[in-house]
Design goal:
seven-stranded mixed β-sheet, Rossmann fold, 2 domains, five-stranded mixed β-sheet, alpha/beta, single chain
C-alpha cells in the first residue's frame, strides 16, 4: 500500500540503474550535456569514466554523437534537462534517431514544473506532445524509483528510440521492488474503483491519489491507473475502462494540448466516447515559485481533480 510520506528521487534511481546495467552490458555508453550532477549520470561517470561522454552545452551534437555510437553497436543513454534535450535537439531526434529507428535512450530530467524556481524558461510542459508525434518514438513516464529502474532496464534491452521523462521532485514510493515488473502494455491499477477512472502518471499520481481519499469520504469510488506508457498507448485498456466506469479524468504535469489527455481522447473519440475531463496546464507557460504554489496557480491540485470527477459523473 502506498504511503504519501515515503518519497524518493527517480533521478537517483536512474543513476543507480545505469551503474547496475553498466556492470552487465559493456556496450552501454552514457552521454550528458554538462548536467551530470543534476541528472545523476555522474554516478555512471565515476564508475565507468571511459564509457561516459560529457558533450557540454551542445545538445544537437549530443544527439548526433549518440546516433553514431548506436550505429557502432553501442547502447547509448542520453541525458540533460527535458527543456534543452527535447527543445534544442528536436530536429536531430526526429531526423537522425527516429527516421532510422536507432536505439538511443533519451532520459530527460527536470521535466514539467519541477524546476519551479527557475521559471517558465526551464519548465518543460510541451515535451510529451512533441516527442509522441515522432514516428518510431516510445514515450514513457515512470511513477516512482522502482518503476524507473525497471523502465531503464527495459530501455537498455529494447531496440529503437525512446523518450523517458523524469522529474526533479521526489516521487511517492508506490511499488515494491520484489513485486514489480515493467510492461509497456499493462497499466498498473494503483487505486481500485467503480464510479470513475483517473488516468495519470509521474508526480501527478500523488495528487490523483489524494483526490481519491477525499472522494471516498463523499461516497465516490475512483479508480487510479498509472498510464506510464503514452506511446505506444494500450488502447484496449483505455476503452475497457471507459466501458466499465463510463467517466474518465486524465491528470498530467504537462500542457493539456498534446499530452496524455489528448492521447486518451484520441482513442475514446474513435472507439467509445464517454464524458471526459483533462486536468493539466491550460495552454500557458509556468512561472517562478515553489512547485506546490505552481500547482495551485495552474489548477493541478486534488481539489481540481475532485471537481472534474463530479463534472464527468454528472454528464455520464
Amino acid at each position: 500500500m502506498y504511503n504519501f510520506s515515503q518519497c524518493s528521487h527517480t533521478r537517483d534511481a536512474y543513476g543507480q540503474a545505469l551503474v547496475e546495467l553498466g556492470e552487465e552490458m559493456p556496450n552501454l555508453i552514457v552521454l550528458d550535456s554538462d548536467l551530470s550532477g543534476s541528472t545523476k549520470t555522474a554516478k555512471f561517470a565515476k564508475k565507468f569514466p571511459d564509457r561516459f561522454l560529457d558533450i557540454g552545452i551542445a545538445e544537437q551534437n549530443l544527439i548526433d554523437i549518440a546516433a553514431g555510437l548506436s550505429l557502432s553497436g553501442k547502447i547509448p543513454f542520453v541525458s540533460t534537462f527535458a527543456i534543452f534535450g527535447c527543445g534544442r535537439a528536436w530536429e536531430q531526434i526526429r531526423n537522425t534517431l527516429a527516421l532510422d529507428n536507432l536505439t538511443v535512450n533519451l532520459v530527460m530530467t527536470h521535466a514539467g514544473l519541477s524546476l519551479g524556481g527557475d521559471g517558465a524558461t526551464h519548465q518543460s510542459l510541451e515535451d510529451i506532445a512533441i516527442m509522441r508525434v515522432i514516428p518510431n518514438m516510445r514515450v514513457i513516464v515512470p511513477a516512482d524509483s522502482v518503476e524507473t529502474r525497471e523502465v531503464i532496464r527495459y530501455a537498455a534491452e529494447t531496440k529503437g528510440p525512446k523518450y523517458i521523462r523524469i522529474s526533479r521532485r521526489r516521487s511517492m514510493d508506490i511499488f515494491q521492488k520484489e513485486e514489480y515488473h515493467f510492461n509497456p502494455a499493462q497499466y498498473p491499477v494503483i487505486e481500485d474503483g467503480s464510479d470513475v477512472t483517473i488516468f495519470s502518471n509521474g508526480c501527478m499520481l500523488r495528487e490523483s491519489l489524494k483526490a481519491t481519499q477525499e472522494l471516498k469520504k463523499q461516497g465516490i469510488s475512483a479508480k487510479v491507473i498509472n498510464l506510464h506508457t503514452i506511446k505506444p498507448l494500450a488502447n484496449e485498456i483505455i476503452i475497457s475502462e471507459a466501458k466499465k466506469t463510463g467517466a474518465i479524468v486524465t491528470v498530467e504535469e504537462h500542457n493539456v494540448i498534446g499530452g496524455i489527455g489528448s492521447a486518451v481522447a484520441e482513442v475514446l473519440s474513435q472507439n467509445h466516447p464517454v464524458p471526459m475531463r483533462i486536468i493539466g496546464v491550460n495552454d500557458r507557460f509556468g512561472g517562478s515559485g515553489h512547485v506546490e504554489e505552481l500547482y495551485r496557480e495552474l489548477d493541478l491540485t486534488p481539489e481540481h481533480i475532485i471537481r472534474a470527477v463530479h463534472e464527468v459523473m454528472k454528464r455520464r
